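User: Reviewer 2 asked us to show a designed sequence for the structure in our supplementary figure. I'm pasting the structure tokens here. Could you produce the per-position amino acids so we can include them in the response letter?
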């Protein structure tokens, strides 16, 4: 069962990192406004898809998880 405990610790660290990200997200005005994020604004319609931001966050999280698995 040691792997279950390690998994819980990693999950806790990920949740804590997401909490820190949400706390300090206002201090990073470029987050969510990268070139590659799709933003369409019409008269009564707004569509926003943070494509580049999602890719960068995915890469960072994948790297962090890769470090924990080593």
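Assistant: Here is a per-position design you can include in the supplement:
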């Amino acid at each position: 069962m040691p792997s279950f405990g390690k998994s819980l610790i990693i999950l806790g660290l990920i949740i804590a990192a997401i909490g820190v990200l949400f706390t300090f997200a206002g201090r990073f005005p470029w987050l969510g406004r990268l070139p590659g994020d799709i933003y369409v604004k019409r008269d009564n319609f707004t569509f926003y898809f943070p494509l580049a931001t999602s890719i960068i966050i995915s890469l960072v999280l994948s790297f962090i998880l890769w470090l924990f698995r080593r």
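For the response letter, you might also mention the following. Helices lie at 2-24, 51-69. Residues 2-69 form one domain.
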